[in-house]
Design a protein that fits this description.
Layout: E1 2-11, E2 14-24, E3 29-33, H1 40-47, E4 55-60, E5 63-64, H2 69-74, E6 76-79, H3 91-101, H4 109-119, H5 135-147, E7 153-157, H6 165-178, E8 183-187, H7 191-197, E9 200-205, E10 208-213, H8 218-221, E11 227-233, H9 236-244, E12 249-254, E13 265-272, H10 279-289, E14 293-299, H11 303-311, H12 317-322
Parallel strand pairs: 3-8, 3-9, 6-7, 7-8
Antiparallel strand pairs: 1-2, 1-4, 4-5, 9-10, 11-13, 11-14, 12-13
Helix pairs in contact: 4-5
């Protein structure tokens, strides 16, 4: 559905995006993450046709944004961080205006507007003036204008920014539902949002894609070892010796408890060799020795940990100098 091929946007005295390359299939909901200034908004503006790349190509359902911009844009719905609303209009008059802009056939206006009003929970507010809407309902209306023309690709920039917790939950549920009929690219700073909604994660840093992975596979792609938090009832020395003797165990150490408690249990962190799953071996060894396992939980890097690891590594001055972008020609 979306192909971004070797795309760069270069500015004078300012880092843009540098040679980014990724694609999206129909039905995917992809989280697009990065620190401020990393290039997220620039990338989305190029995908939607608001900016032209310095080099590279962008295809929407096989249509080049450079060669067929009007046809390509018809396949895109865009919700910027601040929804493009006219505060003096009513909800219905605004959606009719958007329908005309989007070349929706006049005979379909009433049906399409009715569909998005129902889908976005705007019933009963059709005649309400937009300036009087809460921020949550303005965000819903922004989503309504983005999907009114039934786009194949939906692009959203910080769709839950500034909302209260209840509104955030509602908008997340709406986005998840939209993913059934649309391909969705979602930019956000709220990392739990990605875990709650997305089935794939892109992380951009300093204008480059530094991670492209499904959430459940991120740990493996980062070279993360297989670790288990284990609580076992029994004598500490015996348990440490038995766990450490397993062939697939690389290391084992006792963990300190957050609060001092009198207990006959031992709390361990067990790290596997070669990232092997050691849970079954641990279960059978403790069962054989008669030591009940009270808790066994796999531990992995959180998305927050991975994000910080990928976006806070500083480069030396030589690397920075070598990677200075070319100056975009304005001739």
């Amino acid at each position: 559905m979306l192909e971004v091929k070797q795309v760069s946007k270069l500015y004078e005295n300012q880092r843009g995006v540098n040679n980014i390359d990724f694609s999206m299939s129909r039905g995917e909901i992809v989280g697009f993450l990065g620190p401020n200034g990393a290039g997220k908004t620039t990338t989305m503006r190029m995908i939607t046709g608001y900016l032209n790349p310095t080099k590279g190509s962008i295809l929407i359902d096989g249509l080049s944004m450079a060669d067929h911009p009007r046809k390509a844009r018809r396949k895109i719905g865009y919700l910027p961080e601040t929804p493009p609303l006219y505060p003096e209009m009513t909800i219905t008059s605004y959606l009719k205006f958007v329908a005309n802009l989007r070349d929706v056939p006049v005979r379909e206006h009433k049906m399409r507007i009715g569909e998005v009003i129902e889908k976005l929970g705007l019933q009963g507010r059709e005649k309400q003036v937009i300036r009087n809407l809460s921020k949550g309902y303005k965000q819903r209306l922004g989503l309504a204008q983005a999907i009114l023309h039934k786009p194949d690709l939906l692009i959203m920039d910080e769709p839950t920014s500034g909302l209260d917790p209840k509104q955030i939950i509602e908008i997340r549920q709406l986005i998840h539902g939209l993913g059934e009929n649309h391909t969705v690219l979602l930019s956000t700073h709220i990392l739990p949002e990605v875990n709650a909604i997305c089935n794939r994660v892109l992380i951009i840093n300093q204008g480059r894609i530094v991670l492209d992975e499904h959430p459940e596979h991120i740990g493996g792609s980062m070279g993360e070892s297989f670790q288990v938090r284990l609580e076992v009832k029994g004598p500490k020395e015996d348990i440490l010796r038995e766990v450490g003797a397993l062939s697939d165990v690389g290391s084992v150490k006792e963990l300190e408890r957050e609060q001092a408690v009198e207990s006959e249990t031992v709390l361990l962190q067990v790290v596997a060799k070669d990232r092997n799953d050691i849970r079954e071996a641990l279960f059978y060894r403790m069962a054989e020795r008669g030591y009940p396992i009270l808790e066994m939980k796999r531990e992995s890097l959180s998305l927050e940990d991975i994000f910080l690891k990928l976006t806070t590594d500083e480069k030396g001055p030589v690397e920075q100098e070598e990677e200075q972008p070319e100056v975009e020609s304005h001739a």
